[in-house]
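Colleagues,

For the teaching module next term, I've prepared a clean inverse folding example: a structure given as tokens, and then the sequence designed for it. I'd like students to try predicting residues themselves before seeing the answer, so please don't circulate the second half yet.
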């Protein structure tokens, strides 16, 4: 590496992982706030997919999968009193997504670069490093943003 491009430090690596997670969440929120998303909220494809189902699965995954793994990796309790997502409106779902993300990132508030290598061992879910958990959550947000955009476009009148 040259002087102009020093190798990334563990702190920048951590910051990059968290920045990408937040950027992916912002992209999903933007897709949900698009005008077509409201019209497509209940509209189901032939496969039974809808913006509503995608949003409910995302919130459940953040609460029960990624949150559980992150809590195990950091030896923290999982937030109590969580229930499966069932939303009456797109607005309710988008707000719940932000609450779930906030709950998830609260688990990460004292995160140190070395914590990315901690392993979450769960008999039901398997073993993942915290870095893998965060990357999977980032991928989930990105995938769901694309899915919402696709479903919104498909529900547009021709």
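(Answer key — instructors only)
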């Amino acid at each position: 590496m040259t002087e102009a491009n020093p190798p990334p430090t563990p702190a920048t690596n951590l910051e990059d992982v968290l920045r990408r997670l937040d950027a992916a969440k912002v992209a999903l929120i933007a897709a949900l706030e698009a005008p077509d998303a409201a019209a497509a909220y209940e509209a189901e494809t032939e496969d039974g997919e809808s913006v509503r189902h995608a949003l409910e699965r995302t919130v459940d995954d953040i609460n029960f999968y990624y949150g559980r793994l992150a809590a195990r990796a950091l030896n923290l309790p999982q937030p109590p009193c969580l229930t499966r997502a069932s939303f009456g409106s797109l607005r309710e779902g988008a707000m719940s997504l932000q609450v779930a993300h906030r709950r998830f990132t609260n688990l990460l508030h004292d995160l140190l670069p070395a914590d990315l290598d901690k392993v979450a061992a769960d008999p039901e879910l398997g073993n993942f490093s915290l870095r893998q958990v965060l990357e999977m959550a980032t991928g989930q947000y990105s995938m769901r943003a694309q899915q919402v955009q696709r479903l919104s476009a498909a529900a547009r009148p021709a």
